[in-house]
Input
Amino acid sequence: MTLTDKKYQSIHLIILITVVILFWNTLLVYPIKLFVVMLHEMSHGLMAIAFGGQIIEIQISKQIGGYCLYSITPSFWSSFMTGSAGYLGSLFWGALILILAVKSEKDKYITLVIGMILLALSYFVMQSGEFFGTTMTFGLGLFMLIAFKYFGNFFHDLWLKFLGIISCAYVILDIKGDLIDNSNIGSDADAIAVLTGLPSAFIGIVWMCIALITMFIVLRYVYKKQNTNI
Output
C-alpha cells in the first residue's frame, strides 16, 4: 500500500485543508492567492469576450488585487454578467480544479492545461506594463509546465487539490472582505449596485451565499467520491 492509493485520498484532503488554515497568511499560500486573482480577472475577460468584447489588459498587484480592462458593447446583461463573472468565475474554476483532481487519473495533464492558460494570460498582464504581475503569472505558468514534465502523479494530485481548496476558500473570504465588510470601495459589487439599484452589501451577501453553497456541495461531492473509491 502506497501513499498514492485511494485509501489515503481523504487523509490527503484533510491534511491539505489543515495546511491551508495554518499557513493562510504565509508565503506558502500567497502565490495561490495571486492565482485566484488571475482566475478572477480572467473570468471578467472571458465573459467580455462571450458578449463580443475583447481583453485589453490585465493587472495583478502585490497587494493581491488587480483589474481587467476590456472593451464591450454596453447593455444591461453584458455589464451585469461581466461584472458578476469575477468572484463567481474564480469560484467556478476553483471548484472545477478540485473536482477534476478527485475524478481524474491523469492529474498532470490538468496541471499542463492550467500552465498553458497562465502563459497565455501573462500576455494580457504584460500589456499593463506591470512587472510583478507579469512575472508571477508567467512564472506560475512555467512552473506548472516544468511540474508536468518532471513531477509524478502524487505531486499533481496534491497540487491541484491545494489550488482548488485555496481558490474556493479565498473567494469566500474575498467576497466577505471586499463586498460586505467594506462596501462602496469601487468593487465589482458596487458596479452591479449602480446597474441594478440594489445595495452593494446585499449583492455581496448573495454572492457569499452562492459561494458557501457551492463550497459545501463540492466538498461533499469530493468526500463521497473519495470514500467510494476506497
